[in-house]
Amino acid sequence: MSLKEEILKIAKHAKCASSELALLDTTIKNQILKEMADCLEAKSDFIIKENRKDLEKANLKKLSKVLIDRLTLNQKRILQMAKSLRTVADLKDPVGEVMRSWGRPNGLLIKKVRVPIGVIGIIYESRPDVTAECAALCFKSGNSVILKGGSEAINSNLGIFNCLLDTLKKHKISTGAINLIATTDRKAVDILLGLDAFVDLIIPRGGEGLIREVAKKSRIPVIKHYKGICHIYVDSGADLNMAEKVCFNAKVERPGVCNAMESMLVHSEVAIRFLPGMIKKFKDSNVQIRGCPTTRKIIKTGVKAVTVKDYATEYLDLILSVKVVDSLSEAIEHINKFGTHHSDAIITDDEKAAVEFLRRVDSACVYVNASTRFTDGGQFGMGAEVGISTDKLHARGPMALEELCSYKYTIFGQGQIRE
Amino acid sequence: MSLKEEILKIAKHAKCASSELALLDTTIKNQILKEMADCLEAKSDFIIKENRKDLEKANLKKLSKVLIDRLTLNQKRILQMAKSLRTVADLKDPVGEVMRSWGRPNGLLIKKVRVPIGVIGIIYESRPDVTAECAALCFKSGNSVILKGGSEAINSNLGIFNCLLDTLKKHKISTGAINLIATTDRKAVDILLGLDAFVDLIIPRGGEGLIREVAKKSRIPVIKHYKGICHIYVDSGADLNMAEKVCFNAKVERPGVCNAMESMLVHSEVAIRFLPGMIKKFKDSNVQIRGCPTTRKIIKTGVKAVTVKDYATEYLDLILSVKVVDSLSEAIEHINKFGTHHSDAIITDDEKAAVEFLRRVDSACVYVNASTRFTDGGQFGMGAEVGISTDKLHARGPMALEELCSYKYTIFGQGQIRE
User: Fold this and answer.
1) I need a surface site. Which of A61, A231, A254, A320 has the fewest CB within 10 A?
2) How many beta-carbon contacts under 8 Å exist across A and B?
3) Dihedrals φ, ψ of B368, to 5°?
4) Interchain contact B201–A (C-beta under 8 A)
């Protein structure tokens, strides 16, 4: 069988299973998720052995430390995966939920009911834990999933996948519910992206390059999870102690994630009071500062000049660009221009400024007096997430079970006809 | 300026206006919509004169009667357009609505707030009234719109568009809010579909060919409004009088629309009692029947043999395919296989059958004991519609103001940081 035929077979199988999955009872789904978790724990030695194979290749290929860290599985990480599956089992089933219902003057009763989307393709890079988590979220939301992980993680992914599959088989659920495209052939993604007759949605997770390529090539709708260039704006009306605490958290707590702060904007009225202490604190934590001319006037040493390119860069590192602005409007315009519509915050006690910031900043998550680091399915109380959408259609911000669903209208009559 | 530069200029202009539009006060939007309606009425003679130019060309080109009817504007139709605009003005503003709000254990308050999508491109065919209605719906929902109507309606569209534009100018609203690509050059659509940096959503309205072409070429997300092959299934537990009334309505009341019935499925247990009277009634109204072998055994004369192609055809005409099925499951499987996931109904007094039908039929609107003809924004109480989505992502079924919106999360804290 050619690769094309193979992937087509997987997609058809997934489509077929999706109608069975859409009707599956909540208690059975939860039971299966919990048994998948048990299976991952029981087979952890095997999975770690498979992971070693990937790690050996990665070392031979001299992959970066960061990539190798993401790729690595150990007992702790496998327990974490199992825990995620149990968390998803405990979440409310979104399928069948009546989102809204209303009557019409002619007696028709209309209910808007949440239903699964169908078949979801997830294309991701090195992290093998994504395999278990995304499969669990799709399964719980009644969707078939086609997973295409990075080739550097192929053995790890297969190890995890087999646990999931065994549990499905044990419960006589169609194995089309969870699929893994296990090939290192780069053409696989292109083939998958053309199968719009069988796959309803593509979610790419990973670097910007991957996402752009997928969005460009796909004939299937894509929900993009682009990078986060997140800002915190310290307003003239800010509580400066709070601002220092929040900005420090947003930059330093975990700089390598998409909801970390990359640019700090400070109102000129408070810059002289705020910047010296704040920047000292950053420098003490090895944060490299790139500042605008005013910043560099206030902080005479150790601040590199910021460039326009800096403002448009997601550092994912202990680097911060700092700009002094003369007004709330200037801050908002900077954010809408250089940001990625992900997460942005204002620190202020001025309610009018807060309201204007919330209204005008065009981002998935807009904060008043809190760290941008809270943009996360778990932190939002959604239990888990497949990612954070920077798109505006279908799903925006943290994407979890509800966002993996569509809806249908069910309409109840007593013989109504249209005159 | 080349066509490409011209369309790029329009798209940039629209994007720029969209941030202004997103913040526009509800009362001002409503006032403008009402004045647009007044303007259409006041300039109706001019619009009709412009429409004559299109009609003359259409006659020269020997366009079909149906197309010429769709293209024709008269006083009555212009009054109807003005009325639509006033209806949209009276609808609730979706922008700023808090869809949901909840607190988190750490004290964060999260609000999910409806916001406009941004810039919406609408590509449509002959009907010039779409120009006014779609512009009004986009304007009310805070979106900039780029309209690309059929070239056969270019003068009519420009006539209407100028009314809308004059009203915007009078109120000093950026004219980028409502744009018309007024060219007969077929390349215009292709150019528009490539401008994903400025246009957020494309809605094609029209024949299947147009929609497929747009979906194939677009780099911008598309919400497809495909055809409706709608079914009514007369169950063994049906009230046959009700079934006759509803099926007749769904086929005959307005056969040329997407929510009309194209296939009638009848349970074998009631076929002998139901079909003779029902088919006589259809024939008396000039409905041509195409039946399965069992149907033709029951009705000996005047029933052509149905083909698989018939089952997959949207007639939009007084033609009906009829199939006798042996079970509810057979009916559901037929609908999911041959239908277009638009609107399907069951007639039954058996609650269990109704529930199974509602659960298993994978369509935007699934009815129990009512005509499929109710699938319509107005009938659903949404006031108006840009169309009926047969997609599952973002919007499904009638698409109106709420469906023209996205959302953002606004999060209120007191200095929370992530530990």
Assistant:
1) A61
2) 185
3) -115, 120
4) yes
How close is the nearest chain A Cα to the Cα of B42, in Å? 32
Name the amino acid, one letter, at A3: L
Residue A407 near chain B (CB below 8 Å): yes
Residue B320 has pLDDT above 90, yes or no: yes
Q: Where along chain A do the CATH 3.40.605.10 domains lie?
A: 3-226+394-412
pLDDT above 70 covers what percent of chain A?
100
pLDDT(A64) > 90: no
* Polymer length in residues for chain B: 419
Is A209 in the B-facing interface, judged by CB distances under 8 Å?
no
Residues of chain A with CATH 3.40.309.10: 230-374
Cα-Cα-Cα-Cα dihedral sign, residues A272, A273, A275, A279: positive
Cα of B158 to nearest chain A Cα, Å: 30
Beta strand B201-205 pairing with B119-124 = parallel
Which residue of A lies nearest to B108 if distances are taken between CA atoms?
A: A370
Which residues of chain B lie closer than 8 angstroms to A360, CB-CB?
A: 19, 23
Q: How many CB atoms lie within 10 A of CB B232?
A: 29
Eight-state DSSP code of residue B403: G
Cβ-defined contact of B358 to A118 (cutoff 8 Å): no
CB A127 within 8 A of CB A71: yes
Tokens representing B34?
A: 């009402």
ipTM: 0.94
Q: Would you call B360 and A19 a contact, using CB atoms and an 8 Å cutoff?
A: yes
Provide the angle, in degrees to the nearest 10, between the axes of the packed helices B268-284 and B240-252: 40
Query: What is the fold of A230-374?
Result: Aldehyde Dehydrogenase; Chain A, domain 2 (3.40.309)
B 34-93: CB under 8 A from A: none
The strands making up B178-180's β-sheet, listed across from edge to edge, are B178-180, B144-148, B119-124, B201-205
Cα distance between residue A182 and residue A379, in whole Å:
33
Closest CB from A115, A216, A415 relative to B246 = A415
Kindly determine whether residue A406 and residue B396, on different chains, have CB atoms separated by under 8 Å: yes
Q: Classify A127 in phi/psi space as left (phi over 0), alpha (psi -120 to 50) or beta.
A: beta
> Which residues 372-401 of B have a C-beta within 8 angstroms of A?
373-374, 379-381, 391-394, 396-397
Candidate from A246, A336, A360 with C-beta closest to B417: A246
In 3-state terms, what secondary structure has residue B209?
helix
As a whole number, mean pLDDT of residues A388-392 equals 94
The per-residue pLDDT for range A301-345, each reduced to its tens digit, is 999 999 999 999 999 999 999 999 999 999 999 999 999 999 999
| pLDDT greater than 90 at residue B275 | yes
B216:A219 CB<8 A:
yes
Least confident of A24-38, A98-112, B30-44, B380-394: B380-394
DSSP for A141-161, please give it.
TT-EEEEE--GGGHHHHHHHH
d(CA A240, CA A202): 43
Residue A393 has its nearest CB partner, among B102, B117, B374, at: B117
CA A202 to CA A221: how far, in whole Å? 6
CATH code matching the domain that covers A3-226+394-412, chosen among 3.90.1580.10, 3.90.1150.10, 3.40.630.30, 3.40.605.10: 3.40.605.10
Provide mean pLDDT across the span B265-293: 98
